[in-house]
Design goal:
Length: about 475
Amino acid sequence: MGTIKTFFKDTIIYGLATVLPRLMNFILVPLHTGKLVTSSYSDNTEFYVYAAFFNVLLTYGMETAFFRFFNLSKEKDKVFSTTLISLTVSTLVFLGLVLMFNEQLAILVNLKQTYFNLLIGVLVLDALVVAPFAYLRATGRPIKFTAIKLSNIVVYVILNYFFLWAIPEFGIEFPGYNPNDLVQYIFIANLLASITTLLLLSPYFFKTKLQFSVDIFKEMLKYGWPIMVAGLAYVINENFDKWLLPEMLGKSINGAYSGCYKIAVFMTIFIQAFRLGAEPFFFNHAKELNAKETYARIMKYFVICGSLMFVFTVAYINIFKELIVRDPSYWIAIDIIPIVLLANLFLGIYFNLGIWYKLTDKTRYGMYISIVGAVITIAFNYIMIPKIGFMASAWATLIAYGAMMLMSYQMGRKYYPVPYDINRIGSYLGLATLISALSYYGFNENYYVSTLLVLVFLGIVFLLEKNEIKQLTRK
């Protein structure tokens, strides 16, 4: 149990790096949905869809490859230096190419020139700090990692409130301020926050002697490129709906859909926190005799926590919608939330299962699985949006992530069998889905019954897991 406690400790600290920024972003959703009409909120969403896509391209799987080779290699400084140099050079080459074809590329992605230039600035700055951030995680410095992440989001939030609220509220004179194009100031705030992060991490560019190993780079690239393709497929799974909806149903619908999607933030925070703590942990403990049993136990706890989050969010969904998305014009898309929450829980399970192809260096299989998910997402959206509207996008996400989860489990049994407690995990997922359906479709806004259903779920978990819970909480 000591290993599990260590995992939870690191995950909680990394979780702060995710939870607190997301909570601050949570504070921004009411500001953004209050100040921006749904069509402008759609512009904001599309900006970050492109950011997610290009972030994957610019890192080309090197972050995960770094963890793998940093853990295995005796020349850790050389692995870090090679990673740092490769990402820095490729990012600067990307910047040069974009500057050469700036106007044409802005037209190609259908973004205003101003928005596009801000996007490129954010992309370049964020790519440059990938290696230093990975180094902090790999060397077990979660507190420093968290502090820098929080600095970024504090700057971002303060500037958002300054540009979108303080200037118009108090009539502050600001050169060139355009109240008719408020969304650009969200992007400007992001750019300035990214500059802050680069400055804080700049010492790590001189942390070690710069040395580039062609052999290490080739091995890392071979390991990492399938992860890049899988990452691109993940971006499609996660964001294709927000790219397609404005084309098929209009920006206003996309804005409402994207705004309501934010209510699933609690599940995405949980999954991201888990990934930040789990990835280096899984690699570091892969050689231990009981590694597979540890992974299986972590999976069970992940499903328990994720299922509880699913049940709790659905039980109080009407409270959350008024807190997060205050403008009722966005609420036409509220029915997507239970589906999206379950979809993201499946995604979290898939990430957990994916340790088999990372530890066995079979990353191409992760790529294949993600591509299948992307094909499902694209096909289902194109076929079903004309028939059932934006709900098709939520269902596409659920089906794609469910298929990816099942495929990864089946393939993992062959290449790296982990003794997952499938009966217990399946029971928790089924129970959470049943309780959430009862709460949302049968007792919506009846908080007495919803609270009782949440307590029922907790009670069943405690009865089944009380012995392990006592061991975990024992000092």
